[in-house]
Amino acid sequence: MDIKRLKAANPIEKVAARYGTLHRSGVNYKMLCPFHDDHHPSLGIHVGGQYFKCHACGAGGDVIGLVMGFEHCLFAEAVKILAPQETAKPLTHPLPPLERGKVTPVDDQKVSSSPLERGQGVCYQSNTSVILKENNDFLRLLLPVASGHSELSPTWLDFGVGLAPAFVPEPFRAMRGRIIFPIYDAGGVLTGFGARRVDSSVEAGELSDTPKYLNSANNGLFDKSRMLYGIHRAAAAIRLEGFAYLTEGYKDVLAMHAAGFTNTVALGGTAFTPGQAALLRGFCSRAVLLLDNDPAGQAATVRLLEEPPGGLQLGSLRLPTAKDPDELFRRLGCAGFYRYMQLLTERVGIGEKRLLAFCLKHPQTARHVERMLAADDLPFTSEVYRNLLHFTAMGLSSSMIPSTERLLTGILSAVLPDLPLPAGVPPSLLSETEEAVCHDLVEYFRLEYYEERILAETSRLTGLLKETHGSHTELLERLSRHLSVQAGLTASLSRTPVLDERWLLCK
Fold first, then answer.
1. Domain limits, the chain
2. How many angstroms separate the CA atoms of 490 and 278, rounded?
3. What is d(CA 466, CA 91) in angstroms, rounded to the nearest whole number?
4. Residues 52-85: pLDDT tens digits?
5. Distances from the Cα of 389 to the Cα of 176, 353, 386, angstroms
6. Superfamily of domain 114-222
7. How far is CA 300 from the centre of its chain?
8. What is the rounded distance in angstroms from the CA atom of residue 17 to the CA atom of residue 154?
9. CB atoms within 10 A of CB 309
10. Chain-centre distance of CA 229, in angstroms?
């Protein structure tokens, strides 16, 4: 079934007229809301956007969600109701002309929910209108909760994070005393909650045998395998940026949003399900994994990169000096965290990063590297990288280095041990003393950097020549010098050349 075509064939205002009286509100309409005990029309029917939004209870969604609310049914049943007549379930109410307006509203069915606890979650009877009302009632009970960081608090408030009081309705008994993270779908419907154990209670010896997180159990509204925390706030930014950051936890999403990376959603763990991938594909085709820097998170990253779900293009990003974005934000503050992420994601070649990281680990090589890069007219492309190399070559202490470069030092120093050695390093070299090794190894890192830079320069120059059909003598001479340097260094290290004069003819 083509859902887009189904929605197009069922304008939300015409479907809404089947269930109640529509009152004009400019170019849109209002009607009684089926998701709460509404006595005054508070459900807005937005014709242009083809969605509904209740200004009283916060319910919202598309035409399928509207039918789910009025018919007290699940998604699949709502789709059948809206399907073509030959395959569809008959509508509960006939469709009168929109101009007539008056239609008897549907009476709410009084259905007892009698919730039960299942495993580590909370289970509800699958009646969507009842569940949504209970969710919104519980949301209103939440108490203000401190984020622990002044720059995070506005975002926590904006996302509705709160503390569950001691006395809550039966469906939420297992969540009392926990920090509650409301979970919305892409249309802004409050589908469920995530409940985090308060760490102080464990430190005090209380509740130590309880799980860290509880989630609403799967029901007519909530399905964890199809949930992405924060998608209702991230959707627009994901479309704009063309990709999404994927974190594990709710707090990580809040930290990323607080720092301005609003194209971030959470998986709610290390699993990335096909259902979550399908939801994300509605907004982008590419995602960057930003899972926790621990064995479980990194193992999941490797697994997902090998087999990306849902046909998504997956990349990964690791915070080398922190467990997760929330921890790093709390340590650096908003401005520091933002700069850290910029440095981590800036478009600098891996060869450049590895060479600078090697110099940071072996500061005695920094002056030699700086001198060689200047002599060969191949300085670092990044000004920050050039500055840090110079500061290291000068022997400046950490306290004397500007904050931006100091952040970069921490990032690259942590990254280096996990990076393999450049290609061509003979095994015999690694058996020598560290002092001898570091002075010889720096040439292999320099060659790796030169190959990367010259290949990029060659490709750029070839493109220019094809565009202008002219002669660029100066550029060709510069490239020739670079190729000579690279060839000489390759020969001295007994390496198979990666590029040579034939790259001048590359396509």
1. 3-100, 114-222, 231-345, 350-504
2. 47
3. 64
4. 888 877 778 888 888 887 877 777 778 888 886 4
5. 53, 11, 5
6. DNA primase, catalytic core, N-terminal domain (3.90.980.10)
7. 15
8. 39
9. 18
10. 10
Give residue 436's pLDDT. Answer: 61
pLDDT at 90: 36
> 448 with 423: CB under 8 angstroms?
yes
CA atoms of 490 and 429, how far apart (whole Å): 17
Region of residue 72 (left: phi > 0; alpha: psi -120 to 50; beta: else):
left
Share of the chain above pLDDT 90, in %: 36
* Number of residues written out for the chain: 507
The yes-or-no verdict on residue 116 having pLDDT over 50 is no
- Architecture per CATH, 3-100: Alpha-Beta Complex (3.90)
299 pLDDT band (50/70/90 cuts)? very high
H-state helical runs in 394-433: 403-415
What whole-number distance in Å separates Cα of residue 355 and Cα of residue 346? 16
Give the separation between CA 59 and CA 190, rounded to whole angstroms: 7
Q: What CA–CA distance (Å, rounded) separates 181 from 162?
A: 7
Cβ partners under 8 Å of residue 175, min gap 6 = 122, 164, 168, 193, 195, 214
